[in-house]
């Protein structure tokens, strides 16, 4: 009896085992763990003052202290929760709205498509960051959750347009028509036939929204728009800039927060690259295909390049030799 092949299972875990995606997921998982345990494992209260003013990194203060003697390492740990809360919450809200609007508009068509497409176009032209600034400046006690909801509610339109376009191309496929002919309900066709083929696009949109939300949260805190009473990486940069840490040579005040932002952005970008390689065979095999030429050399194929393989030089015929063309005569 033939045994089931293990290829589908390997295909299922190829995304997780990829180098880029695995590295990005590991870094993001570490940030999520710090967001959960950060306030508990922080060695000091981030608001507590001490007599160690503007001290460089040491055994007592790993990332140094501020002008008030506050521990920068504790501020980084406590501020991770706010950054991750805003990024993940905004990503979930925007992704859910994009899936609901985009897939529904693409599958149903007609008046539903026209109405939902018009709604997407309206939100597509709304400037997100100025709207976030207006909302957060109007609401005096706007916390991380309010900022996350505003970002999520204004960042779903582009993803909805992409999902609508993909759904329009999927709804007339043979397997969708077969499911419709067998009497499957609309929601079962959408959930079990269409959404699995949109997983990579949905995941990519989620990652992009998380990056935008994190950058927006840090930007709002850095320019002093959001509440500076709650710690996040942008708040640390705000106080460092307002107290002229660079002019005082206190590099430890702003460098750790900047590195934390850069590392998180790199991890999310690696996850996005991993998703692209997972769904695109051409990207997945880039640089791995080798072609052996007639003279024994190995040429590595790369995306975007068309190799020209030079063959061996054909020796000139000797004088008086009979060529194949003459034999054919």
TrEMBL record:
<dbReference type="InterPro" id="IPR025966">
    <property type="entry name" value="OppC_N"/>
</dbReference>
<feature type="transmembrane region" description="Helical">
    <location>
        <begin position="251"/>
        <end position="275"/>
    </location>
</feature>
<dbReference type="Pfam" id="PF12911">
    <property type="entry name" value="OppC_N"/>
</dbReference>
<keyword id="KW-0812">Transmembrane</keyword>
<feature type="transmembrane region" description="Helical">
    <location>
        <begin position="83"/>
        <end position="109"/>
    </location>
</feature>
<dbReference type="InterPro" id="IPR035906">
    <property type="entry name" value="MetI-like_sf"/>
</dbReference>
<dbReference type="Pfam" id="PF00528">
    <property type="entry name" value="BPD_transp_1"/>
</dbReference>
<feature type="transmembrane region" description="Helical">
    <location>
        <begin position="121"/>
        <end position="139"/>
    </location>
</feature>
<protein>
    <submittedName>
        <fullName>ABC transporter permease</fullName>
    </submittedName>
</protein>
<feature type="transmembrane region" description="Helical">
    <location>
        <begin position="21"/>
        <end position="42"/>
    </location>
</feature>
<dbReference type="InterPro" id="IPR050366">
    <property type="entry name" value="BP-dependent_transpt_permease"/>
</dbReference>
<feature type="domain" description="ABC transmembrane type-1">
    <location>
        <begin position="84"/>
        <end position="272"/>
    </location>
</feature>
<feature type="transmembrane region" description="Helical">
    <location>
        <begin position="145"/>
        <end position="163"/>
    </location>
</feature>
<keyword id="KW-0472">Membrane</keyword>
<keyword id="KW-1003">Cell membrane</keyword>
<dbReference type="InterPro" id="IPR000515">
    <property type="entry name" value="MetI-like"/>
</dbReference>
<keyword id="KW-0813">Transport</keyword>
<keyword id="KW-1133">Transmembrane helix</keyword>
<comment type="similarity">
    <text>Belongs to the binding-protein-dependent transport system permease family.</text>
</comment>
<feature type="transmembrane region" description="Helical">
    <location>
        <begin position="198"/>
        <end position="231"/>
    </location>
</feature>
């Amino acid at each position: 009896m033939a045994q089931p092949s293990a290829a589908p299972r390997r295909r299922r875990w190829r995304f997780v085992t990829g180098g880029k995606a695995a590295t990005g997921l590991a870094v993001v998982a570490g940030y999520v763990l710090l967001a959960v345990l950060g306030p508990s494992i922080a060695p000091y209260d981030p608001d507590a003052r001490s007599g160690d003013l503007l001290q460089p990194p040491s055994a007592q203060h790993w990332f140094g202290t501020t002008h008030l003697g506050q521990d920068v390492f504790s501020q980084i740990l406590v501020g991770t929760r706010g950054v991750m809360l805003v990024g993940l919450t905004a990503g979930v809200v925007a992704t859910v709205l994009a899936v609901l609007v985009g897939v529904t508009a693409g599958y149903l068509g007609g008046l539903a498509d026209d109405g939902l497409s018009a709604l997407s176009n309206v939100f597509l032209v709304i400037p997100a960051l100025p709207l976030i600034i207006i909302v957060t400046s109007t609401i005096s006690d706007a916390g991380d959750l309010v900022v996350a909801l505003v970002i999520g509610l204004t960042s779903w339109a582009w993803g909805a347009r992409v999902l609508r376009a993909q759904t329009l191309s999927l709804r007339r496929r043979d397997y969708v028509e077969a499911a419709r002919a067998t009497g499957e309900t609309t929601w079962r066709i959408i959930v079990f036939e269409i959404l699995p083929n949109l997983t990579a696009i949905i995941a990519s949109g989620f990652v992009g929204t998380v990056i935008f939300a994190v950058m927006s949260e840090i930007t709002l805190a850095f320019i002093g728009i959001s509440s500076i009473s709650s710690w996040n990486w942008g708040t640390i940069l705000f106080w460092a800039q307002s107290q002229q840490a660079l002019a005082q040579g206190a590099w430890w005040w702003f460098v750790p927060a900047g590195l934390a932002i850069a590392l998180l952005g790199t991890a999310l970008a690696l996850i996005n690259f991993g998703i692209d390689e997972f769904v695109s065979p051409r990207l997945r095999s880039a640089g791995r295909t080798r072609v052996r030429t007639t003279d024994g050399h190995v040429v590595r194929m790369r995306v975007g390049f068309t190799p020209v393989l030079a063959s061996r030089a054909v020796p000139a015929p000797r004088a008086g030799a009979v060529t194949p063309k003459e034999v054919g005569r």
